[in-house]
Please model this.
Amino acid sequence: MDKKFEGSLGNSIKIAILGNFTLSEIRDVLDAKCTQCGFKLDYYEGSYNQYQRDLLTTRSGLYSFNPDFTILFLDIQSLFGDVYFSPYRMNEKTRRVFIRKKVRELTQLVTVFKNNCHGKLLIHNFSVPTYSPLGILENVQPFGFFEMVEYLNRKLSKFFQSDTQVFIYDYNSFLNHHGKMQTVDPKMYYIADLRLKRQLIPLLCDDYLRYINAIKGRVRKCIILDLDNTLWGGVLGEDGIEGIQLGTTAPGNAYLEFQKYLLSLHERGIILAINSHNNAEDVQKVFEKHPYMILKEHHFASLQINWENKVIKLDNISKELNLGLDSFIFIDDDPVQRAWVQKSRPEVFVPEWPSDPAHYVRALQGIKELETIQITEEDRKRGVLYAQERERRLAKSAVLDTLEFLKSLNLKIEIQPINNFNLPRISQLTLRTNQFNMTTRRYSEDELHRLIANQDTEIYAALIKDRFGDYGMTGALFLKEDKEALVVNNFILSCRVLGKDIETALLAFIIQYAEKNRMKKILIKLIPTKKNIPAQHFLAQAQFKKIMQENETEIWCLDVKKGPFYPKHIEVIVCKD
Amino acid sequence: MQRLRSVLSKVLRISPKGITDETSPKTVETWDSFQAITLVSELEMTFNVHFSMDDVLSVQNVGDIRACLKKHGVILEE
Model:
């Protein structure tokens, strides 16, 4: 299982959990869930109700454990103390003061945490009560008991909205979803101070795994979809365009809604592709003529619609999109196809799929592998970008000569020094890029901030555009001056811009930089992996010579002689700040 | 008794053979407060019963568990 994720951030994760009641039941379940996902869990559990000491003491067990992910799970009843039982002993004004004080206490704890730990922090929000001593009059109270908790939750969400280290877990929604009456076993609460039924702990841990997957960069970018009995009911080849089930009445409405949810994922950046046994012309007709076909041809980055077997088609999609197999989620109603794909391409994530279309939407919503801890502007556009790329390929097949084709693209590169706006995306490029990534060294945002503070590394981002659209920020350079040589600590290019001479243009920029600073050599660090073959090829092609090897790190050298050559078909703009 | 033995042996990680009515937290090292909680929910799930708070608090040994299950209408064959 671990092999799947070789070369990602590493498979061990340090998780700490702090709270104000008994949390001991979580450990084993979380451990099992982590193992299932291929993570090795290292766990720290704060002592019973000692979260404040753990968070406020610099040399606490928590900070010496140095977790990647900390969960702060506080129960509202313990947080409020006697106020939970008698909220109306206080008047409205005092209740407001009380809540403001609680918000301040919590945010202060977090501030101390941030000063002492670079890992992510997940804070449970609070369960809004369902009982009030005022009964049915509760909701006519100004700033009543329920509103106090709602207000606290809102404040916390607002406070950490743009924080990239701290996240709020909507525990109140989790409890609502499962029904608050059903989530606690009163006798176990009184006997052992358990605040959540044992049966729900695996579901809570599933939610934690959504964050953990995202933190560890295990994000699937592309959903591959079957058509018959997946995007619509029935078999197009037999039932015809009028006969397939897709529309406003059952069962067609289940497929319609499923498509709507897929579209919303596409709009937030998920790439869509089709892998189906069908006649392409028939499907074309559905795209063009079916009134309820929400997903159109232009939403898909790859259309593998033919009678080849599904594994071959999957490989074709991977080649076509330049994405590794570990980027894919494969959705198909046929259990035989699923089992076969899973067996022959274990890197692909193949979710269990319900046989009843009424459950398709839920199955889609339950996929943890689509989570990301942050959505950058680039992410949002990705689904569209890949679909545009398919149109580019169509244009390319019309123009035979590659250079002619590249010229016709009107490529533009804008090179920017690192700043607060592009930093999250640069971190993301280091996390997610595997093929054209010289070292596959990952940098968190914090590490980048530290690199900038040290002032010895120049970091650049490259923005790429052409006449079909914007590829977004897809390249990064880490440059360091070392006496007479310019050391390239990393050189990253997203796979979706490869094959357009962008890499040559960026190399020209590096050479120009070296010349300007009177450096005679360029040294590029390379750590070869199974995946970064394109990067390795590039170095050889660009006349670099391997001159040194230390453990797994190789140093490749190029003498700076002649002036830099920017490819003629690319316009390069270098921004000063 | 077979089913009860198997729950006990699974949760407490002990051999089902040595379990008698006298088996208790005093005789089994792994039967701590944490495993006791696990035991309650495992028993409730296996026998599809809901214990009361008194039930849980009154249990001192395996014999008490048996009595308790019997009270809830669970018939344990020898």
